[in-house]
Amino acid sequence: MKSLLSVFTAVTIITAPVINAEPDVFMSFDFQNGELERGFDDWYYSDKGENPCQIYNGENQSKLCRADGAKFYPYYNGRNSDHMGWLQYGYIDSSSDFSVEGTSLRVHLTGGMYKDALGNIQSDGTPIKSKKEFTSDEDLGVQPRLPGDISLYYKGPTATSKIEQFSGKNRLTVWVLMPKNSVDIEKYSTEFYNSPAKSFSFYPFINTSKGAHYYHHASNIPMGGWTKIQFDASPTHKNSGGVNDLHAFVEGGTEYAGSGTDYFANIAAFNLRADFSKYLPANSVYYIDEVSTSYKPYENEETIKTLAIGYSPESNEFDISFEDKYRCLACSAKYEVRYSFEPIDNSNFESSFKPAFVTNFDRRYSNAEGVIYKPKNGYNLLWASFKLRNEHLSYLSEGSTVYFAVRDISERAEGNYYEEDNMLVDVPGVGQVAKKNLVKTIDYTIVDVNYPLQIETSEISQPIVGYNYEQEIVVEGGKRPYNLQAIGLPNGLTLEGNKLVGVASQASSDTVILSAIDNVGQTTDVELEIDVRTEEQLRVGQCKVLVEFGQTYFPSSNFDSVFHDIYTGVYQSGMTTLVGSNAKYNYQGISGSGIYLDAGDKIRLVWRNIGEDTISFAPRLSFSAQHRFNQAESQEWISLDISNATSGNTTVSELMLPAPLNPYSINVNSNFSNNKTLLLERIEVVSAQFDESDYCEMPINFTKATEAQISQTSVILADFSLQNSSEFELHESLNTVFMDRYTGFNEQGLGIIIGSNGKYNYQGIKGEGINIGTGAQLKITWKNFSSEELVFTPVISFDYEGRQIHGGTWLELSQTRVSGFDQVAQEPGTGYSQLDLTDSSITWLDLINISSNVSVSNTLIVKKIELVDGA
């Protein structure tokens, strides 16, 4: 074993009595009247054009100052390089819409510098550094990802001034609200990342603001709710370099080894770095609130560092991050997490609850035992997500507090840890406990986050005539569940729940209005263009495919060999970067006997974007190089025009040949930094030498519909999803609604609302009536708001308006299976019942009465009745 603390010579540490001090608010950001300009507590606002607290270049930006000369301000990094960082524009403001308490500090990003596809440094957005400079969102750029970030610096009156409020403390807590959905939790794993990514950091400067600083990191992702980050006095890195072969630091760093309170008491300045703001588009906003300090004794200050918790109000899922002490190729580690609704400490950790399930960053190690595994030995960061047990989900309401604790259960090999970890601490009421076996705790109070209701879907995948179509409509904000409506849909398409589905019957260009209504009546709408095309309209004439990448290569006779970079390979339907994300480490190509091409012929590259965001890139192509692009041989490469690819869709890059060419190889570099996001699916060639019958087809994401599906048309007879019965969507000839007195409107339709007897349930429509065509079917859409799947056989009558037990002729519908409520999507389960009218003698419908025939209460509803006509 090794030692870092020469000051410790005994194996037992005699500790002071327990001190359970409540957190002290250091910066509340509770601006007077909610206005930035009025300041908060003893901080006042200083705008551009003045510099009362003497910040470097302070007259060019806004800042917060204190009468004693302390300052808190955005730091704008102008180095503009991948190594040293990039400039991000933006300004500070106050917010009463999003806060933990009172108001918060709002940071609005307005653009920044970036490197374009040709390697040139460009500016996007507007270089705003003060609130008064901001006028509108209109000029805040078009780049979807900017590499810069904004840090917030605290400095005292002098370089060596200490922070009085940090005296006697060993915790600094910050609440952060990151831009929602900017990271996909499904892809936050070892499949797409080398390790958890730094999302928020604390850089304390010890003794002087002019010296080196330490690093403390969290790696939580935007979960939709606030993230609570608890920084301690145990760093994992220092910018002046490492001190040992395990890259390990003890509590207190090198200056105050063994004393977290001395480390805090001698902080002269610090930087709060919003690492997550890298690669966000301009006009992104994040919030910081309730910066507080506290002292926590008898906790693991050695091998558990920077504990942080985030929360998703939609899925009731938490995410957790912290740092391990050690970094080396053999430095594995594992921890266990517990929770309770009372404070946890070393005496009651075992009696607290294990989560229902832990999703580890390395998904192979996900488990129901509450164990978090370090995903990469050579990194410090750990991340996981988890849910509480089902019986505790109801506890998660606004204002409720959940207490969490983490304990180190690693089995580190000799030489991969330091003896300080095993030094004993005399814990009151518990006895002697090794430092590494102490718990580390954090509590989290649920804070309601009221995002505005909006339809996130801004572009619609192109429907193809004769193909089964499905497009999810994403709605965010407001209060779930949502009710969606659509006006102006192309023939053959309909809206079912949150999806556009169906089979388009003819080519058209339509303007569609989508509307969303939330659970408290808020509404929003968006106008979208939908262009329906036929297969023939998508074909490219006089075209041949030279290679089709995928799980199995399909090269052509002219190019029968495939080559690629060692970091590039096949993923899903094409070639992409598999290891890392360096744009220069990507190439894929074909070689062979070659093909003669004339001036005016075209090389076509078909790409697919499987990421969440729209991307822009300018690929390179070479007819001679069969290796990576490098600047020294740039003359061998041709840069193509910038292409844009929306999420989930394809795009085409083209090169028109200026002169005849007989290439024996074609090599493509995506020139886009990504990992398993941008796929090259095909290389094609368009040439006048080919016949008109030779053509290339654009990839179609949908399956071919059967003749029966194509010929079917659907007529809505009743849609009960609007709460006001006067607004039910009813067929003009079946325009009267009736129902049992124990039946009524619930959530999105009609169902049992009093009692639970299925025999007492009926709901239906009547009117002048409609004619029934040959091959018609009735289709009933059900919604299930319970947590359990329902399987039942409903009944229907066409001659009786009343309960099935009182009279009428009743027919059984198809056995119906309706899935339970989706806790992640916060959507009720959907199921369908059908009745084939082909063999019945019914040719006229003037009454339709449906009974669920299953005993439930306030959970199962009829949302829609449709007539599907196959004639």
UniProtKB/TrEMBL annotation:
It comes from the Bacteria. This is Dystroglycan-type cadherin-like domain-containing protein. The lineage of its organism: Bacteria, Pseudomonadati, Pseudomonadota, Gammaproteobacteria, Alteromonadales.
